[in-house]
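I hope you will forgive my troubling you with a question about protein structure. The matter concerns a single protein, recorded as an amino acid sequence and a row of backbone structure tokens. Please examine both parts with care and let me know of anything in them that strikes you as inconsistent. Here, with my thanks, is the record as I have it:
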Amino acid sequence: MSVSASSSRFRSFLRRPLSARKRRTVLATLRTPPKALIIGLDGAGFDIIDRLVSAGRLPNLAALLGAGASAPVDTTWPAHTAPGWSSFVTGRRPGGHGVYQFFDTQDPGYGAHIMGSSDLGCSSAWDWLAAQGWSLGLVNVPMSHPPRDLPGYQITWPLQQTIRYCRPAGLLAELARNGVHFQSDLATMFRGDLGYLDEAVANVEARVRSLEYLMTAHPTDLVMAVLTEADRVCHHYWHFWDPGHPQHAPAPEGSGWDEAIERIYGALDDGVGRLLEMVGDETSVVVASDHGLGVGRYGVAVHRLLEDAGLLTTVPAGGARDGGQASWFTGQERSVDFGRTRVYMPVPGSYGLNVNLAGRQRDGVVAERDRAAVLAEAAALLEDLRTPGRSPVFSAVVPRDVVYPGVHVGRAPDLLLVPRDESVLPVTDLEGPVWRPSWQTGLHRYQGMWIHRSPRVTPGRLAGPVRIVDLLPTLLAELGASWPDSIDGHPVPVVRERQARPLGPLAEDEVVAPAPAGPTEEDLYTSQRLREMGYL
């Protein structure tokens, strides 16, 4: 069937109310199912999923859990979207791919270089599969912008204002002509209005309709799409849902905010079910997340702590050198004076500290011979930090070489703050109290989730967690595809009919698809969206 004929028939199908059985029958005549379907649920965790499955609220995920292998997932430190999905698609820990946050954590001029596909310092599963003749349909995968030269189609995840986030170039226009376009994730983030819940549910619907169209009109061997709305809703509605939250308040009558989490998970479950209708039992299906979410209690102003300890200096706003510093180094009244600062947090939410090293940072003041002593002083300060309730905040403050082994360890912050209390978010605020209620009432958790359904996979919940770097190698092993020896991940032992070819046939310098250069300076629109989300 031609693409134009398929598009016409599918447009007609989308506009007709159909029963589930009729929908499956129509789709069966339209589609060429992929060999593999990966559905990313950003921020999803089994603590919520299992609770809602038990209550009968998630029938499609319940069926998938019954038919597939599953386990909690140990993700990255920090438990963050950028390193999490980058580790998923590369099978490498952050030291192997070099992405630690949405922004570069070692910008020498203290700037806000937005990270993206052009900053991924290694090959990914998309390169390996393309080299083996696979076509790919990639939709809304974080850290995938700008689009790369890969077979198939891409609608990327831009962290900047742009309409050039797809390949082929006319794909967005085609979706719009067929009534199935969706906005980029950046444009649909939470903006401080709790009426966002309805928008979030509509966003899931729009993304799923786009996927139904794309999987029909543009069949590929593998499809991956990420639905981000659970992360957004859990960040900002948790206190309505959780009676034990310190900021808990009754939801306004008729708002439904107390059931926001059930509602968004219900929308995701419906979306998963509709996408499963697009594929047969022979298609390998993976549903996975980059991290989980839980209660958010406190924000702790790390720069205030560093200033009180004499490790960081501020001056009245406008009094510091104006050299392109990121916006989070200036508040309403104070700015960081890097000419007199020894330690700073490079990016909000990075759970990291940098030494302001002479010869590395533009205004560095710490000599290389003093670096270890300054790191030790900063580590001692944060290791002893207690919440207002006197519980420890961090379990360890660890040098980057220990946490992030790999060729890209030099991109990492110098010290990693490993949380003991995940309800506390380190922030870069320069003013106000050291401790303040967390603006995001739900915060990221280290454990995400994973389900893998295939005729070749033994179903059941594993006894312990698996690593995020192991998830794609497991899928590739089941599908008989190859991957480089150099990755950190290994297949989870759930595949009954192991079809993987021997490891190591792919050379790194032969399989990395080129990517255009990403943005080089702070995009104020991006910063405003992330600030409204509570990330900055």
